[in-house]
Amino acid sequence: MNKWLRRTAIFLGVMIPLSGLIAYLVVDNALARMYGETTPLAKPQLGAESPDKYLLTNVQVLSADGRGFESDLSVLIADGTIESIGHAQTFGNSIPRVDGGGQYLVPGLTDSHVHLWRSRNDLLLYLANGVTQVREMHAQPHHLNWRETLSAGALGPDLYLVAAQLATYPFWEGLWRTFTTERQVVGSRSATRARIPALIAQGYDAIKASSFLSREHYLTASDAISDSQIPLVGHLPLEANLADLWSSNQRELAHVEELVKALAREIGGYTGAKQNEFLAHVRARRQAVAKQLRARDIAVTTTIALVHSFAGQKLDLQSALAQVEFNYVNPGVARGQAMGWLPGVNPYQVPASRKVGDWQRRYADYWDTYAKAHVLMLEALYAEGVMLLAGTDASVPVMVPGFSMHSELLALQAAGLSPTDVLAAATRSPGHWMNWNTGKIAVGYRANLILLRDNPLEDIAATASLESVIIRGRFLTRQDLDALLLAVEHANRAAD
Ligand SMILES: [Zn+2]
């Protein structure tokens, strides 16, 4: 080999891996930023910790069936568990007491559809809003680590971790998406079959199907999971139809939207010109669909507030952002390229090229009809007694972690659910579905509780009158909750 050839070979041999490494580091850094990892950790200044064992006195306790309150009770909390419930005088005077001030004691709320990404401060936002359990719908190995730190005393809600969604893509796109969106990309039946026990072994609580899982691999996953202990949840893949769902082992749908989209596919897709046909089809089919779900014991997560936000995000994103608690949104996530919130990166905004003619009227009509279809479907699910799990898709724009839970509960009440049933969708039902001893105030249940000034069984808006949160037994006062919020706000500002 002559001298020049050898030099060129050496040069390329160094430069190609080096530029690969640089490209990797640049992308990795951008990912850390857009998933909220580079925002400083919040450092809240909290009051003294409550004792391991104390008597919470003078509270109105939500009955075990969730349908009423019993007044002037005391709850003995020890080592993170409800040890006893009764009248104060029966407990003697040796146990430290916390006065509940006659307020309403209800189970801590569960948001059954959240995305934590790498934004650890979100854990504090959930607690500050009375959300003591979340179901993470795109869990990564670092969330398994977070769960360890929580059980060792860190602050945050209990985490139910659904493994990152299974998806099918062409080879190169699959590699890219595995890296950037951390999806579980499966390219063959055998890979799908092998992935499920691997995820279970890592410690995840459920397996998730994505919209982009092929029908073939969806049916394979469903089959592979039939004899495992953990559920298949999530989306109904776009290639699949409701008949596939009925024959699957799927135990939950991550959105009412999955049903609405499946019904739209039955009429060849929903376009603006087909608004009346679409709504008529939803009306004609909804009861039969709800009956099937009920018969198969498939739960449905609501995410209705998100659907209601679409029209606003399409038409006037700045106003939509101004209506939510944007100060608490992780700035990295808000500016991120994947699921960013701000103009320019928001996935819901209308591109400038489409803003022609009477686009505002067309978009408003289309998305209002879409939202109507969701309420129609939800009414049928409710009427047929399908298990509803209140969930928000938190961290997806414009669902602010923790705060969005209250918007969802209001949206469910506005859609016709009684306050009692809305509260159940955020407490008893998710507790039952996850097979956790949460969501009920009963002996042996986790002491994950909230104190409200107003009665949520009269109007679910009462969840906004939050005064205290008890997480794994630790009592957080209103001042503590405000300190959590302030610390997150400061951290977000420091990230700028
Ligand atoms: Zn989601």
Automatic annotation (TrEMBL):
<feature type="transmembrane region" description="Helical">
    <location>
        <begin position="9"/>
        <end position="27"/>
    </location>
</feature>
<protein>
    <submittedName>
        <fullName>Amidohydrolase</fullName>
    </submittedName>
</protein>
<dbReference type="InterPro" id="IPR032466">
    <property type="entry name" value="Metal_Hydrolase"/>
</dbReference>
<feature type="domain" description="Amidohydrolase-related">
    <location>
        <begin position="371"/>
        <end position="474"/>
    </location>
</feature>
<keyword id="KW-0812">Transmembrane</keyword>
<dbReference type="InterPro" id="IPR006680">
    <property type="entry name" value="Amidohydro-rel"/>
</dbReference>
<keyword id="KW-0472">Membrane</keyword>
<dbReference type="InterPro" id="IPR011059">
    <property type="entry name" value="Metal-dep_hydrolase_composite"/>
</dbReference>
<dbReference type="Pfam" id="PF01979">
    <property type="entry name" value="Amidohydro_1"/>
</dbReference>
<keyword id="KW-1133">Transmembrane helix</keyword>
<dbReference type="GO" id="GO:0016810">
    <property type="term" value="F:hydrolase activity, acting on carbon-nitrogen (but not peptide) bonds"/>
</dbReference>
<dbReference type="InterPro" id="IPR051781">
    <property type="entry name" value="Metallo-dep_Hydrolase"/>
</dbReference>
